[in-house]
Structure formats: C-alpha cells, structure tokens
Amino acid sequence: MLDLSLRHGFEDFTLEAAFTAPAGVTALFGHSGSGKTTIVNALAGLLRPDAGRIVLGDRVLFDSQARVFMPPHKRRIGYVFQDARLFPHLTVRQNLLYGRRFAARGGAGADMGRIVELLGIGALMERRPGALSGGEKQRVAMGRAILSDPELLLMDEPLAALDGARKGEILTYLERLRDETALPILYVSHSVAEVTRLATTLVLIEAGHVMRSGPVEAIMADPDAVPALGLREAGALLTARLAAHDADGLSRLDSEGGALWLPHVEGPIGAALRLRILAQDVMLAVERPQGISALNVLPARVLEVRQGAGPGALVQLAVGEARLLARVTGRSAKALELGPGREVYAVIKAVSVARDSIGEGR
C-alpha cells in the first residue's frame, strides 16, 4: 500500500496531490504538464517536496513535519523512464546483473531466469543496447528495474517513444508482469488505451490536483470523469472470459451483461479479458432490435443521462453489475424518453471493438 500526500510549488505551478495506491497497477493519468512526473520524482526521492508525507508499506519515505527524507538509494523503488537508459558498453546480461547489485542483501529477490522468460529477452542476453530495437530496450530496462528487488516499480510513460506495433508488444509483457508477479506498479500515462488495458486503480491528475481516484472500472464509466479523459475517449471497461472460437472467425466472450461476439480474439478458452467499449460505439433501443447486423445486444438499465453543452448526451448504463456509457444526441434521448430506471438494450457492433482495446487479465 502506498499513501501519498504532498505539495510542491514551482514559479507558475503548484502541485497538491493526495491518493492511496493499493496492490496492482495504479495509473496516474493526465495531460502533459499536469504534475504526473513531479509525483513520480517525489516518490523516487529525486525531488524533495515543500510539504507532505509519503508512506510505502510500513516505511516512511518522506515526512516534512517530522523532517524525514529517505535518500533514493534506500527507498527500494525501481524506476523505468521513457528512454531505457541502458549502459551502452554492457551486454543485456550485464545490464540485468547491474540491477541485481541493488537487491536487498539476504533477500530472495526476483529469479533472473523467470524475469528473462517473462519479458521474452532470452535471445538478447549477449547483445549490446545498440543492437536492440526500442521495444527490446524497454523490456531490458524493466528487467533491470525488477531485478533490483524493489518494493514499488515506477514507470514514467515507458511507451511514449515507441510506435504502435512496439507499444502493443510491450503492453502484452506488462500484462504478464501485472498478473504473474506481486510487484506493485505506479504507471504514468496520458494514453487512455494503455490505462484501460493495464490499470487496476486509476488516479486522474489535472492542473496539479487529483480530480478522482479509485478502481479503473468505476472511474472509466463515471460521467464526471469524462472531462478529464476527453469526450472522444469516453467509454467503459468490461471484464469477460473467452468462451469459444467459432468456425466463422468470431470469438464468444461471456461478460456479466451477457455474451459478446468479436472478431477472433487470441487466447485459450477460459482466459480472462478486459474490453474497452467506447461510448460512441454503443447504440440504444427501447425494444430488442430485430433484423439488424449488429451481433451484440445487451439488456441494460439507464442510471443517468448527462446532457452536454452541445447537441449530445452521455448515458450511463447498468449491464448486470457492470457499467457502460453511450453517446447519443439529446434529441434521441428525448425521443426514447431516457431517464434513470428506463429499461433499454445496448447495441455494440462486433467490429467496433479495436484489437488494442482488448487486454488480458481482470
């Protein structure tokens, strides 16, 4: 458990942030300049805040009133930057072993063979960084940080410099890291797609202040969070299990709201998945539609209708125990008499769920 509360002033900007991060991946989301990196640097001990308190587990890393400031090398925190920052004159193996030098004496530490396998870098061990791709460098940097046996892993926009293909590759490894290790991770990003695939807890940062924090599923489906996330990114997160691969190339996923069919989804039957469903891809009907091409029709109940400044409206839906968002026009909301308690059907086109909106794990 991480408990953080801090204040720090710059010439034209003051950061005042407080949040609690439980086990799992906690994502700090906000636009450039919102204060995310300042928080991470304060956690790492690279910045001494003007005031506040930082507690990791049972250790106080910083307390301005008690005049406690633990130096960076004693904090047991791993840090993965936007650029890998590997030692160019060392091989991958030597870079990894350098990280292990900082592991606690007498501690079991992470098993190097397991981490190498987990990150898929076994074939790279004798290469030097100059012979690696951007994605390979980042995987090695992650391995080096993990092998230092940290109590917390900080990742400051580690995918920002990578292209789409490399990002997808690294996200898969990060999902494995989240699901197969007990290492808590604080992940900084301004990409909603990354956050919804990885995070278990979401902290929204805006202009140096925490706007909202909590379980990622709850915040993504909350209309109050949409201004911080962006209207085009408005959507919700559903968890499901891969139930079947049909002969016509579709896969069936069983969610709390019902069955969903999507173009072939990689993975074994029974695999846990998380789906990002954009609000703009959800249509609403007050009667079960007949004779339409959309395969996914889920019974739902309206929880809230939020009228926008323009012609649009945002509708929050209960689909079983899960939540969805739908973007419709105000005219449609009025014509369908949408309001709290109204029973409707949420219609989702199978092809509207992009591959990068499907992640592993719950």
Automatic annotation (TrEMBL):
Pfam families: ABC_tran, TOBE. Keywords: ATP-binding, Cell inner membrane, Cell membrane, Membrane, Molybdenum, Nucleotide-binding, Translocase, Transport. GO terms for molecular function: ABC-type transporter activity; ATP binding; ATP hydrolysis activity; molybdate ion transmembrane transporter activity. InterPro entries: AAA+_ATPase, ABC_transporter-like_ATP-bd, ABC_transporter-like_CS, Mo/tungstate-bd_C_term_dom, ModC_ABC_ATP-bd, Molybdenum_import_ModC, Mop_domain, P-loop_NTPase. GO terms for cellular component: membrane. It comes from the Bacteria. Signal peptide: none annotated. Residues 291-357 form the Mop domain. Residues 1-232 form the ABC transporter domain. This is Molybdenum ABC transporter ATP-binding protein. The lineage of its organism: Bacteria, Pseudomonadati, Pseudomonadota, Alphaproteobacteria, Rhodobacterales.
